[in-house]
Structures are given as C-alpha cells and as structure tokens.
Amino acid sequence: MNRVGTIRAGAAIALTVVAGTVLSACGGSEPIQQPFASISTTTTRLASANIIGLDRKPDEACAAPVAGAAVPAAIVVADPALLDGLCALGLQNRVKAVAGDVPAYLGTTLAKAPKLTDGAQADVAVGTAQSADANRRAGRTVTIPAPSADWRKSFLALADAVRMPAEARAVLDQYQRDAAEKSVKIDAVHNTVSLVRFTADGKSLALGTSPLAAQVLADLKVVRPEPQRKPEAVEMSDGDVSAAEGDLIYVGYEGDKGREHGMAVMTSKSWKDLRAVVAKRQLLVQDSAWFSAGGPVAAGIVLHDVSNTIKASS
Hints:
The chain has helices at 3-15, 83-88, 108-111, 132-138, 151-161, 165-185, 212-220, 255-266, 269-272, 275-278, 287-290, 296-313, and strands spanning 30-33, 40-46, 49-51, 75-77, 95-98, 124-127, 141-143, 193-198, 204-206, 234-236, 248-253, 282-284. Helix 5 (151-161) runs antiparallel to helix 6, helix 6 runs parallel beside helix 12 and helix 7 crosses helix 12. Strand 2 (40-46) and strand 3 (49-51) form a beta hairpin. It is built from twelve helices and twelve strands.
C-alpha cells in the first residue's frame, strides 16, 4: 500500500470515533445498548444532562504512525493547536517537543511529548502567529495559519510543512464524504441544534457559527437556532437562557470552574424550563474536542457524536 493509501486507512480509523448515547428518561449510571452500534456505552449525568463519549479511547484517536524517511523524523510544535493535524496524519510519534498543554482527546503519546525548551532540535518546527514567543524558542519555525480561523486551511498548510499534502487531501475528502452521508441519514435539515458552553470565568455562552463544533454542524447541514446564526456568541444572563433553546442542546464546560458554573445554571428554573430540557434532549460533550481550535480528529469526534445522538433521539 502506498503512503496515501496508508494514511487514508488511518484517517478512517481516526474519524470513526466511538461516540454517542441514547437519550433516555432515566437517571443514574447504567450501561445501555445503542440501536445503531454493537457497543455498550456507560451513561452518567451532570445535572440532568447525559454525558456522551465516556467510552471514547483517546489513544486510538490518531491515524496509524507513518513509516519511512520521506517526512520529518523530528517535529517541534510551538502551538499545541497544531497537534490535531499531526495526529490525523499519523505523525504523533515524531513530535519531539510541545509548547503548552496537549488536548486530552489526542491521547497519551502526544501528552508524553517533552515540553519545549530553548534550542530544541528538530527537522521542522511549526507554530502559529498566536505562539510567537514559543516560535522564537523553537528556532526557525514554519508559521501555519491558526486552525481556530479555518481548520481545513490550517491543516493543509501544516501538511505542506511536513511534506504530506496528498495525505491531507485524502483525510479531508474522507471527512466530507462522511459528513454528506450522515447528513442524509439523520435528516439533518429538520433538526435544530443548539451549542452552549460554560466558561471558567463564569459566562454562559450560546455559541455562534465560528467554533469547530458549529462548523461541523454546518457541514452536516443541521439547522441552528436563530440567535446562534452569527459568528459571535450570545452571552446569556442567569434569568434568560432562551438563546440556548433548540430541538437538542449540546453543552460543554471549560475546566472545573466551568463545570461548577454550568451546574448552577443547569439546575436553575430558567434552564429547566427550556423545551429541550423538559424533553430530556440535552447532552454534555467533550469540551476539549468540541470547542478546540480545530482539526480533523476533533471534527471527526463532533461529526460522529452529532450523527449518532441525533439519530438515536429522533
């Protein structure tokens, strides 16, 4: 098999993420059988929201490691937002130093990468404009467009830097095929999906069209609530969370403080009165993937979470 074929197979594994849980009316923690997959998923809750993706295996997130000498053997990463793309290309074992924290959804191989220090040795160093200080410590750095602005453009630029442009195109083509197929299967155009995130600084945000998860929803052709159809998030007050309303609400929280704030909001009367909450159609998602800077692995996680849970709750 040639290198493109190998990475395509690995990307398919990376995009086929264990995700989803049936929306059920019962609480507690219990194994339930998905009607759409031959796996059992343990469901737990935060407030009254089922938590999805607990059985996902981060160590299986990346594509199969690339072999051979055609690509850089040692890569230094000044901006951890670029790790998703390297993971999707099967380059996780070639990352020799990272500045900053590794997203939890990418697994232990990258999490164990040494922290960036001055004078780190590499065949190529990659960073973004947002990681200017780390870029200087990494030495001669290839500056990649930040994935937060356009994750596809960033991924292709990253692939060029590590000499894997054809493999990156294969990954994106597979993602687009998956999105188109799943859009039809879940009847996406007849589902209105809301995105809410509780931040560490105490904000309750009804997210707009900019975050990674929102971009995946657009690829699936899922409808968004009216207040969430612009790039900017809507900051909701404690007494008015109407901007969160939808047929289904996906909720994320930023760290422990975000979780505490989310618990307070989700147990309030205004939240409990939302139609989706009354109908038990709210789900808690993996924040580090859904609201990351973006990349093929995170996009695949969101794609499969959404397609599975919408299908299950229809």
